[in-house]
Design goal:
6-stranded mixed sheet, hydrolase activity, Neutral Protease, domain 2, binds zinc ion, zinc, Neutral metalloproteinase, metal-binding, alpha+beta, Metalloprotease_M4, 9 helices, single chain, Elastase, domain 1, about 40% helix
Amino acid sequence: MAGPVCFYVPAHIIDHIAKNARQLGIDPEPAQRTAIASQAARQTRRAAAPANLTAALTPPRPGKGDRQIFDDGHQWNTGVTLVRGEGDAAVGQANANAAYDGLGATRDFYRDVFGRDSIDNAGLTLLGNVNFGVQYDNAFWDGTQMVFGNGDEVIFTDFTKDVDVCAHELTHGVTQYTAGLIYTDQPGAMNEAFSDIFGSCVDQAVHKVDAGEHNWLIGEEVMAEQLYGEAIRSMSHPGTAYDNPILGKDPQAADMSGYVPGGDPHVNSGIINRAFYLTAIELGTVPAARIWFNTLLNLWPNAQFIDCAYVCAEQARILARDGKVGRNAPQTVRSAFREVGIK
Ligand SMILES: [Zn+2]
C-alpha cells in the first residue's frame, strides 16, 4: 500500500528552526539533520527491514492488530531490533513502552468507538520504531510503520511522550484506507485535520476528559523545557499555538478568511480542526467523533471543504435518526461549518 510520508512536525517549523538556530545559540545540527533525514524518508519509503528476532518475544498473529515495537539503536534505519511484541511485559526503556501504549490506545479507540479493526479494518499489525536516528526532531508514518525520533531535548523531547503523535500518524493510515484524501490543497488540509481530530480524540480518551476539559492542543507534550507551554497546533484557536524566535509564529488559518489557496495542508487544516472543535464542544467528543468518522468513510480523494460540510451534516442526520447522537446534531454541524466560513 502506498501513501505519502506524513511528518508530525511540519516542514515550515523544521525549516524555521534550521534557519534561525545558530543566531539563537542553539545547535542547528539536529534540525538540519532532521530536514535531510525527512527528505530521505520521503524518497526511500521502505517496509521494516528484517529484524533481529529474539526468541523470547511474541511474534505477531496475522490479522489481529498486534503490536511490534523496534529499537532502531540510533541508526537511520527502521525495524532494527524487536524489543516488545503483543502482550509482552514492559521493557526497561520508557519510550518503547510509551510507543506500545500509544499504538494500543489508538487501536483500542478505533475498535471501541467505531468498531474498526486496526488501521485497515483487517487487523493490520502495528509496527512502531523508537530511537530512530540521532536527536531526530520528528515522527512519521510511512504507510507501513510508525517511526519516533528522540528529539534534541532543546526544542522537542521524545516523540512517544504525547499520545496524539501516534494517534495523529496512525490516522493518516486510516485515511489512506478510507477516503484516500489526496495530500494537496483542500483534500490535503482535510487529510491533516482528520489526523488532528482523531489524534485529539485518542488523547482525550487516554486522559479521560471530554471536549469541555480538553486543552485542544496538538503536540504540547513533546515541547522541551524551554518551550514549555507552546504547542504545534491549537484546534480551538488555530494560529495561536506558538509564537517564539525558535519555532516562529503559528501560521494556521482559523476560518476561510485565513485560507491560503493551494497552501500547506498543515496551515489550512486549522479551518476544519476548528469546525470539529465547535461540534465537539456542543455534542461531546465521542458523538462528534462518530459523526466525523462516518464522514471520513463517505468522502473521496479530491473532496473539497464544502463536500465535507455536506457529508458531515448528512451523517449527523443519519446518526441522529438512529438515536446514536443528539437530535440537534445536524444543526450543530452546519453551524460549526458556517462559523468557519464554509457555506
Ligand atoms: Zn499529519
